[in-house]
Here is the input.
Amino acid sequence: MSWLAPGFLAAGALAALAVVILHLIALQRPRRYDLPTTRFIPTAAARAAAMTRRPSDWLLLVMRAVAVLALGAAFARPVLAPERRPMRQLLLVDRSDAAAELAALRDSSLAHYVDGDAVIYVDSAARAAIAPGPDSLRQLTLTHARGSLSAGLVAARRMATALADSSDSLRIVVISPFASEAVDAALPEVRAGWPAALTLVTVAARSDTAIAEPVTLGEVADNDPLAAGVRSIALSATHPVLIIRSSPTGNDSSWARSGGLLLAWPAGRPEGWSDRLPTDSVGALVAGAATVVAPFARPWVAPEVGPGSRVAARWVDGEVAALEQPLGDGCLRTVGVPLADQGDLTLQPAFGALLRALVVPCGGVRDLRPISAEALSALRGSGSAAVSAKTLRSEHDRSPLTPWLLGLALILLIAEWLLRGTRGGRETDAASRTDDTATTRTAGSPARSQGAA
Here is the structure.
């Protein structure tokens, strides 16, 4: 057991000692003397302070001393310190699909793992492994998401604080391809919050060398305006893309879950969207760097952007025009933009740029280039890779025993007050009867003397 504020424990011990000393100073009746006259008899019970070697009331003494000790211990905030390890690692494993080979990521993680280490899996977010260990790392899989080193370091910092009481020192090991897309504007500030160097383990990054292939069009009418635009620019992508002009079916969703991009651009109201009352119009549509200026009708309202969803296109006033939702290893990208059957809007170059922006990979355009050597060196930092766990322990930690100790002190003080009141009344009555008897005897002595005379 350790104490977060041991000074209060010493203060409680001194206060308990003072209680014992005060108990040894007892108020006692002075020795009885025969007085020649009643005028020297006091009007109240006579008491005098005197030191004694034995307390007059052991129960009250124990209750008061224990109550004071409990208060001191409560303010000293005791904590049950677990057994500590000399060194504990926090492994940050980047499981985004920026890595070229899953086997290399697994091997690097297993090579640096030591029994008892904490494992944090990083992709677009960061989460601690439920049961970290070799088996968990052997079952590691990649996710179709861009990594976030900032999220990983924030999670590691929180985990380090939680492990500080059971460790003497900690260090962070980052296993990642360190792609440029994993670095955001918050990373320098987040990195500055860790007061030691990072151990960086680099695995090979994936390079997009896939050959672009034409996108797949679902069942469409011969005069469908969207199909005309797709065919006019020979729309292609380096990843599987299926464009449908209706709400997705179960087969379509299953296809997307296997890692494809399902672009649902229905002619009517998309599933999950609501009617706009009244219908209005807007002058432009924006997706990525593409902008299409035209008198669009806007009859529908997109649903709320939920966790994991991404806005793929907006109207010029900022409202959502296309929404992407993760679906297994792929995604569903729904477009709520009505297209007129007449006109050449879908054949214009601006609309072709819009189509290309709408068939980018799930999660948006990826940047898999490794970060520069200077950026990698700044991320690693300098000095020792281990940080003392003492610097990570919070000075404002709560003690789970403090409420119980305060409750014990309160119960003892209430019991002491009740017991003291009961015994005090009895002693007062007894003293009053004794004083009355003594006064009567003393007052009667002269009368007997006079009678004798």
Q: What stands out?
A: Confidence is low (pLDDT under 50) at residues 438-453.
